[in-house]
Amino acid sequence: LSNQREMTSLQNKKPVVETEVQQVAMGTANLESFRFTHGMGNKNAEVQMFMAEEVFATTNLTDKQKMAAVIAKSDQRLQTCYYERGSQQSLPCEWSQFKELFLQQAADSGLDKVEKYRDETWANYLKRLKMEAQRRKLDDNEVLKMLKGRDAPSKYQVLFLAGKLNLDELISTIETFEFMQKLKPRSNNKKKEQVKPKRRQITQENVTCYKCQGKGHFARNCLKKTKKSCLLVKSSNEDELKLSGKVHRAILDTGSDVNILTYKVASKLGAYEVITNESKEITLLNGNKMKALSKVKIWVEKDRFSDFVEFYVVDRAICDVILGKDLVNKVRGKSYCFPLVCTIPTPPGKIVSWGRPYNSEKDKEDFKKLLSEFERKGIVEESSSLWLNPVTLARKKDGSLRFCLDLRRLNSLVELDEFVIPNIQDMVRSLSDHEYFSVLDLKDGYFQVDLAVKDRQKTAFIDPDGRLMHFTKMPQGFKNSPAIFQRGMQMALKNLLNRKCMSYLDDILVFGKSESEHDENLRIVLERIGQFGLVVNDEKSKIKLREVDFLGYRITKNKVSPTEKRSQGIIDYEVPKSKKDLRGFLGTINYDRILIKNLADKAKILYEAINEEDRRLNWNPERQRVFEGLKANWEKS
């Protein structure tokens, strides 16, 4: 309707060119032999203009009639432009001038409207332009022509203007240059010296690198290549399938929410539909994050399954084709999920409804972004519940936002699940004769457990925009979440526990007395957790080390000691000023009672200080001596 009104408005102006169009359209029968559309590209536009001039050569048309004939055989966008020019008496008078101007407008590819994202590499931008040109049925020369007038770093403008490389060569050259730039060492500006608490002096000669196990340097300065991601261990999670009729090998990643395809494969398939060129951040199997170039729909065939499937196209990945959880389930006909479903049994007729306002504007904005991500992953959804719980927001060490519900009132209605969580000290004590270790961290552990549909309304909360939401996954803050998760992990790993691995909530320790035994155990454990759809956080996982930190302890062959961070925390502990402070200190050192012989006897005088009737802490030189003596045990370790 809008277009019709616009054309009616233009027609009411009755420009001179419209009269000419009508005259030529009625008097020339050969106009059907050519047609112009906006964005048709240089080559197509020149071919159509050649055909038009062939027709004009057999007629006795004036320049103005030729112009009118061309406009009559143009699409609405071109016609609108020239109707406006005609109404303003701004059309060229000569055919040669009109022809040059018209070819420019008809050939306009529109690629200049495809903007480069702020954090996008130039190589990825050129790949996205190439895919957009293919979608518009334009050749690579249209992209190269557009780039000549594009603002770009001088080193790239030289390549664009030289015109000696085709588009694929240009992409490869820039990609190589950007890769080499990443390898250049960054300048290390000296920072002002700051006064820090006294720490134990560690010399360069006596340190051990966690990455290569070599002496004399730290892991951050290690020159050896980083160990491969734990998810690169070959297993049965690989298969073959057909994409647009061509066979490709794919990784079946039950921890991924999306399907991923590399640009290399996408550009060769040809028969696919581009859904959107909107950029999206994708987390790959090795934990690296990158922007997707586009989203496409491809015909997939595997055994009895065949359908159009959406894929995100990325620059590169450890495998050209990666299938997400939903597609894996369809292809294999199985459902990969945690062994248990979280339930929240409450007495009938009891409802919790209370809230708390959001105070910080910055927290509100960050919370909106976090909720948007949770909603996309299916962790939360909109609700119509009568229940309501307040939201608790806190900042992590890296500055990002931590969100959980204040479920104290809900917890008061629920009976405690008394499933026994493993004793950490007993776990680490049994590892003395093992030499190789890997620590697997399960990503967003609790959110890998489904929340029973009937209990989801009990986790309702209000977001900063006033929407009522509830969880679909097991929430943090629910008092039975640890017991449910630990029980599920023991069901999943069952016969592997204490033989090949140990599990403490979302941390799994894999061990082996030799390198080959460790590698086999790791393969089996990864395959087992993959069968239950559990996702490993590669960024926090540590693979095949002889010295590893696990649950606050540093574990090596025949030795278990507190981690350096925890030891330093005890060494730096300030002199207690109250019984509460002293109680905190004793609780902290009690965590290491298996490592310090006769710890209870050594700390007896401090326990007596807590049990005195006087409410104030009576501190004296003897207690100070015992306090310092206890801390000395961690200096030695």
Automatic annotation (TrEMBL):
The keyword Iron does not apply. It holds the Pfam family zf-CCHC. Residues 209-222 form the CCHC-type domain. It comes from the Eukaryota. Residues 375-555 form the Reverse transcriptase domain. The keyword RNA-binding does not apply. Transmembrane segments: none annotated. Keywords: Hydrolase, Metal-binding, Zinc, Zinc-finger. GO terms for molecular function: nucleic acid binding; zinc ion binding. This is LTR retrotransposon.
